[in-house]
Amino acid sequence: NKQVILKDYVSGNPKESDMYVTTSSIKLKVPQGLKAVLLKNLYLSCDPYLRIRMDRIQGSNVFTSFTPGSPLSGFGVAKVLDSGHPEFKEGDLVWGTTGWEEYSLITEPEHFFKIHHTDVPLSYYTGLLGMPGMTAFAGFHEVCSPKKGDRVFISAAAGAVGQLVGQFAKLMGCYVVGSVGSKEKVDLLKNKLGFDEAFNYKEEQDLDAALKRHFPEGIDIYFENVGGKMLDAVLLNMRPHGQISVCGLISHYNLNQPQGFSNLLSLIYNRIRIEGFVVFDYFHLYPNFLDMVLPYIREGKIVYLDDITQGLESAPAALVGLFSGRNVGKQVVLVSHE
Ligand code: NDP
To answer: What is the pLDDT of residue 59?
Structure first.
């Protein structure tokens, strides 16, 4: 059983060498009497929160640290090879939290979602139809109250979550602008994902000026994925009673000292509602989400960019690449074909 192991706790920027791939033996059967499933992992999802779990975590009621010397774990798509659990049978396709390894014995499979719709690519269950899709849905439609004509700004807009928030906002009739870290991503937002405008934040000397150029009348909804200087500049450009949905702060995850903000008074002057959320609190809405999004996919009204690397050996580089923007779309690792 090939596995991706965390070498030691990580501080600062994660590196490929913080992980290594090793092989151990595993019986491809659920032990007699155990209410567990044995999974063959097909796709693994690279998500920014995995970096948080590589650290020594203190004071979080959401995440626990990975254990150095043990495999990483995260969302993935898998096939049931053997089951001692009445709700799962051999051949079922599922998505949920699994090991970064070829085969995983899962003792609490109740947390997995069964995959019933296979007319769409299976890899979508790591992204569009999985946790990131639910994040875009919950963070935009549940945390905010978007209306037609709202001016919406999204950071990390070509990523797993951002590209969907933009498309959901366009379907609502909003004006949508995204910020991304390369010209290639700017072109994709404008030409493939239907954003009205996009800019490369790495090429802007002055983020406040870039936002004023795209939002001369201000921003109604900011979908926050990055934090740092971008959030500070956004605070200067929010419309009165605007909303900020704090999904992620990726520019903070590798910092030992949190970043300070200069423009927080704007929250008061402009009566802004700013709200963080955790997608796990919304997983009960998954059936509603599927009902909304599957028809859009089948009608071609939502498209999805994913970036699939081949083999477990590629997983450390793929994960680390999230922090330099190497991924174009949802970063997925193909472990094995069905
Ligand atoms: P992405 O697919 O967007 O990948 C991360 C992207 O972030 C990179 O491609 C890069 O794009 C950008 N990025 C990396 N470092 C920085 C930086 N220092 N400053 C600005 N941009 C940076 O990831 P996801 O869509 O999976 O996640 C997006 C955000 O949502 C993350 O912050 C994540 O933690 C959060 N999240 C929160 C959840 C919740 O429950 N609240 C659930 C899921 C995700 P670029 O080339 O544009 O720089």
So the answer is: 86
User: Can you give the residue ranges of every domain in the chain?
Assistant: 2-127+305-334, 131-280
126 lines ligand 1 (CB under 6 A): no
Superfamily designation of domain 2-127+305-334: Medium-chain alcohol dehydrogenases, catalytic domain (3.90.180.10)
Looking at CATH, the fold of the domain delimited by 131-280 is given as Rossmann fold (3.40.50)
Q: Select from 277, 322, 331, 332 the residue to mutate for testing ligand 1; criterion: most ligand atoms less than 8 Å from CB.
A: 322
Smallest CA-to-CA distance from 54 within 3, 11, 104 is with 11
Q: What angle do CA 298, 299, 305 make, to 5 degrees?
A: 70
Measuring from atom 38 of ligand 1, which residue has the nearest CA? Answer: 247
Token match 């567990």: residue?
36
Predicted pLDDT at 338: 84
Q: What is the mean pLDDT of residues 79-99?
A: 98
Per the DSSP assignment, residues forming a β-bridge with 37 are 83, 106
CB crowding 169-180: b at 16 or more within 10 Å, else e:
bbebebbbbbbb
Query: Is 327 touching ligand 1 by the criterion CB < 6 Å?
Result: yes
Render pLDDT for 217-235 as a digit per residue (tens, 0 to 9): 999 999 999 999 999 999 9
DSSP state of 242: E
Q: What is the mean pLDDT of residues 86-92?
A: 97
For ligand 1, atom 39: residue with the closest CA: 278
Ligand 1: atom nearest CA of 160 is 25
Q: Are strands 73-83 and 2-6 parallel, antiparallel or unpaired?
A: unpaired
Q: What is the pLDDT of residue 257?
A: 85
Beta bridge partners, 94, equal: 78, 114
Compute how many other C-beta atoms are within 10 angstroms of the C-beta atom of residue 91: 10
Q: Residue 8: is it exposed, middle or buried by C-beta count within 10 angstroms (0-12/13-18/19+)?
A: exposed
CB atoms within 10 A of CB 283: 13
Report the share of the chain in percent with pLDDT over 90.
97
User: Do 331 and 304 contact (CB within 8 A), yes or no?
Assistant: no
